[in-house]
Specification:
The chain has 17 helices and 41 strands. The protein has 671 residues and is an alpha+beta fold. It has 6 domains: 100 residues, Rossmann fold (3-Layer(aba) Sandwich), CATH 3.40.50.20; 134 residues, ATP-grasp fold, B domain (D-amino Acid Aminotransferase, Chain A, domain 1, 2-Layer Sandwich), CATH 3.30.470; 70 residues, Dna Ligase, domain 1 (2-Layer Sandwich), CATH 3.30.1490; 126 residues, D-amino Acid Aminotransferase, Chain A, domain 1 (2-Layer Sandwich); 130 residues, Glycoprotein, Type 4 Pilin; 68 residues, OB fold (Dihydrolipoamide Acetyltransferase, E2P) (Beta Barrel). Strands 14-13-10-11-12-15-23-21-20 form a 9-stranded antiparallel sheet. It has an 8-stranded antiparallel β-barrel with strand order 26-27-28-29-30-31-32-33. The termini are far apart.
């Protein structure tokens, strides 16, 4: 029996594995690089071993250091988590040679499925439906263009050893195929040390649906239903759910059975995932098999009641799976939102810095609702440039899909993150979108719904009225604390009255309200809208305001007091709200409006990163859409292009330079 487990990973997945190991009575060992010396997974583990400098290539990717840590601590087994060495057959082989249990599949299965070209050939041989494409290696960009023309645009250019969205590009024409090949090849070499590229047909109106597998060493393999992972950004999943709102029972069974057939063909054990592209007619095509635990595994756990990490550990210990295919349940609906340190207002570019505030919603579990937050950070911790910018994975479960989505919306509204840019407003916006709520999803969802990028949510009228009501209730609460509110004795109770004008986006909304004390109920009138709140929870200086409306709905708003009102963030909108007395609001039109400075003559670095290349020189005339520079951040190469015709007047950066966000790269002048 495994009694001590080393987790060869960091962040939220290391913390997640530690939780299950602790529940099973297994001692845990964390490993950490310099940047993670104070990390949460280091604090949670029973022991921790330092393995080197901050760059992953010098620490988390060093096989000999992981094995040395096992020998130092007496760990009998290693759980690799995901990423890093999790799908490296040399790592599994080295552990086996050292007599250490690898909590994952056999070496041959990792080798077979880890190479996308080989895996597609094996999948086809096992009777799994595959996407048309060119499975041979591609020498250069010219050959890539020729192959893309033969397959027919659009095509997907992918790194053979890729994963996590790195080394992937979609090309719709020859120019994009040429540039996509070069960028994918460069990213693949940087991220995986393997620059082999292949090309396949890109399925239009595609959904990304994957089947979760678990297998033991006694020949048993089960499929644990599916996950819908279609909402992606740069080929990286953002929102997942289980089950899929699109599949019928026949398609689910066919995908599951084909996945099991593939797993058995390669002698697969442990947890793994077979990923498919599914078209509008429910035709499905094999994409790849991930020979590890997936980031989005919690939604499967929530609908099946299974602990995948526990099953992996038991399988690694030689045990049989404790259930059969007929016993796999599918109960309720689960949704996962990946919270990233990235700025949605800057094309989702990575953000780094200190988490000056980190307050997730409370976790809970009942027969009607569950909230789960898998995280590896804490308030005061650093988001480093060295690793993936994920902050947390927030999950909700409820009996129905819409109930799970509504619960997620409230949980996101309740989630407080300050100090780094983050995608909370984007996630909140999606939860309220009619298309998402209807389940009309494709992998092009973000590009289709936000063609000009994300600029914050535009709240519908009903939501704006909620914000105005909340702002007025907060102002009355402030004034009441100061003894400035009119009261009227009503028997044994006291009513507090207030009258203000709430200004949002230039619109003035008159509000009359009174609060019945001590019951805490409120009555409000805004234009022709009458609202009643059974309770309102907020204290001056607080950052969350919670309203229980008489309709049974609950609203949670992030609120920060300003000179004349509040900054309120709600359902993806970030609003400057003024709460004024009526006579002050009447004078507002006389106030001057501050005009922001013109920064259009500069190319600014959109994220902290390293300059890979500068493609222009001083004096060059550039055209709209021309590549100006390439900046690498979080192992992703970001191509910066001209937005209009201009002359380069000055070059401020050089290749290799590490730049901060908004640091000037180029300066332009009119032609």
């Amino acid at each position: 029996m495994i009694t001590k487990l080393l987790i060869a990973n960091r962040g939220e997945i290391a913390c997640r594995v530690i939780k299950t190991a602790r529940r099973m009575g297994i001692a845990t060992v964390a490993v950490y690089a310099d940047a993670d010396r104070e990390a949460l997974h280091v604090r949670m583990a029973d022991e921790a071993v330092h393995i080197g400098p901050s760059p992953a290539k010098d620490s988390y990717l060093q096989i000999d250091k992981i094995i040395a840590a096992c020998r130092q601590t007496g760990a009998q087994a290693v759980h690799p988590g995901y990423g890093f060495l999790s799908e490296n057959p040399k790592f599994a082989e080295a552990l086996e040679a050292a007599g250490i249990i690898f909590v994952g599949p056999p070496v041959k299965a990792i080798e077979a499925m880890g190479d996308k070209i080989t895996s597609k050939k094996l999948a086809a041989a096992a009777g799994v439906s595959t996407v048309p494409g060119h499975m041979g290696l591609i020498a250069d960009a010219d050959e890539a263009v020729t192959i893309a023309q033969l397959i027919g645009y659009p095509v997907m250019i992918k790194a053979s050893a890729g994963g996590g969205g790195k080394g992937m590009r979609i090309a719709w024409n020859d120019g994009e195929a040429r540039e996509g090949f070069e960028r994918s090849k460069s990213e693949a070499a940087s991220s995986f040390g393997d620059d082999r590229i292949f090309i396949e047909k890109f399925v239009t109106e595609p959904r990304h649906i994957e089947i979760q597998l678990i297998g033991d060493s006694h020949g048993n393999v089960l499929y644990l239903n599916e996950r819908e992972c279609s909402i992606q950004r740069r080929n990286q999943k953002v929102i997942e759910e289980a089950p899929s709102p699109f599949l019928d029972e026949a398609t689910r069974r066919a995908m599951g059975e084909q996945s099991v057939a593939l797993a058995k063909a390669v002698g697969y054990t442990s947890a793994g995932t077979v990923e498919f592209i599914v078209d509008a007619e429910r035709n499905f095509y094999f994409l790849e098999m991930n020979t590890r635990l997936q980031v989005e595994h919690p939604v499967t756990e929530l609908i099946t009641g299974l602990d995948l990490v526990e099953l992996m550990l038991r399988v690694a210990n030689g045990e049989r799976l404790p259930l059969t295919q007929d016993q796999v349940q599918r109960k309720g609906w689960a949704v996962e939102s990946r919270l990233y340190a990235e700025d949605p207002y800057r094309s989702f570019l990575p953000s780094t810095g200190r988490l000056v505030r980190y307050r997730p919603p409370a976790e809970s579990a009942s027969e009607t609702l569950a909230v789960r937050n898998d995280t590896g950070v804490f308030e005061g911790g650093e988001i480093s440039t060295f690793y993936d910018p994920m902050i947390a994975k927030l999950c909700t479960w409820a009996p129905t899909r819409l109930e799970a989505i509504d619960a997620m919306a409230v949980a996101l509204d309740s989630f407080e993150v300050e100090g780094v840019g983050n995608n909370l407003p984007f996630l909140s916006t999606v939860m309220d979108q009619e298309r998402f709520r209807d389940g009309r999803l494709t992998t092009g969802y973000i590009a289709e719904e936000f063609p000009e990028g994300f600029h914050g949510a535009s709240l519908p009228r009903g939501r704006l009225i909620e914000v105005a009501a909340a702002a007025a209730m907060m102002r009355l609460t402030q004034e009441d604390r100061k003894g400035l509110v009119r009261h009227s004795a009503m028997g044994t109770a006291i009513e507090a009255y207030g009258e203000w004008v709430v200004v949002i986006g230039g619109e003035q909304i008159p509000v009359r309200l009174h609060r019945l004390d001590p019951s805490g109920s409120w009555e409000l009138n805004l234009f022709d809208t009458a609202l009643t709140a059974s309770s309102f929870t907020w204290l001056p200086g607080g950052t969350l305001a919670t309203i229980d409306w008489s309709t049974g709905e609950t609203a949670v708003l992030k609120a920060n007091a300003t000179t004349s009102g509040f900054r309120i963030r709600y359902r993806g909108a970030d609003l400057k709200v003024m709460v004024l007395r009526p006579h002050v609001a009447a004078l507002l039109r006389h106030m001057p409006i501050k005009v922001p400075p013109d920064m259009s003559k500069y190319l600014l670095c959109p994220m902290p990163g390293q300059v890979v290349r500068i493609d222009v020189a001083e004096g060059d005339i550039v055209e709209d859409g021309q590549t100006l520079a390439i900046v690498e951040a979080m192992k992703m190469e970001n191509v910066l292009k001209a937005e209009k015709r201009a002359r380069v007047s000055k070059v401020h950066a050089v290749p290799g330079a590490v730049l901060a966000v908004d640091q000037v790269i180029l300066e332009f002048e009119a032609v």
